[in-house]
Amino acid sequence: MEYRDTLLEALGIDVVRADVEGAVATMPVDHRTIQPFGYLHGGATAALLETVASLGALQHVDPETQSVFGVELCIRHVRSTRAGVVTGTATPAEIATNRQVWDVECRGATGEVLSTGTCTVRVVDRRGVGDARSADRGTGGTLTSDVAE
């Protein structure tokens, strides 16, 4: 999978592993990922955690016919850091046909928990890939707003 010219590249996110049992990625705490006060930005952490959940979710679908989209991210920041590399992990909590729920966690360089939560991912069919309607929406498929199955 190509990560060039994406948010992953902009934040320095490095994918370590993505398989059916989960996903792991790292992100540096540097000028790209800190808030003006010098601490790791919660939004950067959120991007890391949604990334690992989405990469894990992708392992449970056929990427030729389906896409995955994060539709809900609920995280609690319990601690922060000013330096080093943080690690985001995602493990499946529930895998269904059209929806997946992932437990997500961010740990600091010494292993301390910084943030925990869940990410709900919607699985959608890639109908209309390449047609004008899907290109206008920018999703490459059909995404409906109803999350509950």
Give the gist of this structure.
With 149 residues, the protein is an alpha+beta fold. 19% of the residues lie in helices and 39% in strands.
Q: Which features would summarize this protein structure in a list?
A:
149 residues, alpha+beta, Thiol Ester Dehydrase, Chain A, six-stranded antiparallel β-sheet, disordered C terminus
SSE order: HEEHEEEEH
CATH class: Alpha Beta
Report the CATH superfamily. Answer: Hotdog Thioesterase
- Shape category: globular
Mean pLDDT comes to: 89
Tell me the radius of gyration: 16 Å
Helix content: 10-25%
* Contiguous runs where pLDDT drops below 50 for at least 5 residues: 131-149
Secondary structural class: alpha+beta
| Residues in β-strands, percent | 35-45%
Quote the distance from N terminus to C terminus: 29 Å
Number of helices: 3
DSSP strand tally:
6
Question: What is the fold-level CATH name, i.e. the topology?
Answer: Thiol Ester Dehydrase, Chain A
CATH architecture heading: Roll
SSE layout and pairings?
Layout: H1 7-11, E1 14-19, E2 22-28, H2 42-58, E3 66-77, E4 85-95, E5 99-107, E6 113-125, H3 132-137
Describe the structure.
The protein is of the alpha+beta class and 149 residues long. It has a single domain, classed as Hotdog Thioesterase (Thiol Ester Dehydrase, Chain A, Roll). Helix content is 19%, strand content 39%. The protein contains three helices and six strands; from the N terminus they run H-E-E-H-E-E-E-E-H. It has a six-stranded antiparallel beta sheet with strand order 1-2-4-5-6-3. The two termini are 29 Å apart.
